[in-house]
Amino acid sequence: MGPPKHLKPKHKGKALVAGGLSGAIEICCTYPIEYTKTFQQLSTERISMGGVVNRTIKNYGVGGMYRGLSSMLYFATPKAAIRFGSFETVSGMLIDKDGKDKYGLGRAKGFVAGLGAGTMEAIFVTTPQETLKVKLIHDQFFRDPPRYKGFFHGVSTIIKEEGVMEAYKGLMPTILKVSTAQATRFGVFNAIPHEYRKTPWQAALSGAFAGGISVVIFQGIDVVKSRMQGLESHKYAGPLDCTRKIIAQEGIAGLYRGVTPRLTRVCCEVGITMSLYGEVVKFLNKVWKTD
User: Fold this and answer.
1) pLDDT tens digits, 89-102
2) Which pLDDT belongs to residue 47?
3) Is the CB of residue 180 less than 8 Å from the CB of residue 254?
4) Directed axis angle between helix 239-250 and helix 200-229, to 10°?
5) Which of 269, 41, 231, 219 is nearest to 132 (CA)?
């Protein structure tokens, strides 16, 4: 996500590879937090992070905390690759051949490029990935016994019974969520002076800060998205109807369900990918000569 100039990929393909590797490693590290967050958002009863963990391990063992990981992992590489590749592409469109700011956007270039990157990510990867993840987690806890026997069985069942477009349920709130989140993360990260994000640890801390800001601002969108992609999505006519019903039944606090694990998850996610992306790019620039 917008590393300092000396860590910029010298070829668009490097952005795809670096982004993909960073995304795959990151999701394996942080998925239990994502799982906890999604469960809290789908639950209509108040349950703590510890309650989710204890209930899961008691009923399904430690492996239960990784239920739905496959849907995230299979998509993690292309998702991060598209995100970083799109960011570099849009960033290139905002400068002239001499590297100068073509439209006078200044530091806002990061926000604009992030908006484009998030939109592409949401359309091509995030929406189907999130739909499958939410349905697998929802199935495990709200059906007894769970109907889906795993990722491939769940995917084939959903497509067979509900059609391919079911994977694109919640497309608009997902585009809104991802584009605004990436715009904020890229924008805030790039607004931090380069001297404060030169080392991997500095990049990680800067990324975590940028990720935290995006969560605080856009948590409600994430809750609406999760509800519209769950097994009870038929209850909602659309994003606005879903928002209205959540507020009416659960109050404003309902829009902040799962905020603690999501804040933890996103800070870790963005911090790890920021740090890893720059380091992988640095390595690729040494071994992959494209000049």
Assistant:
1) 999 899 888 888 88
2) 84
3) no
4) 90
5) 231
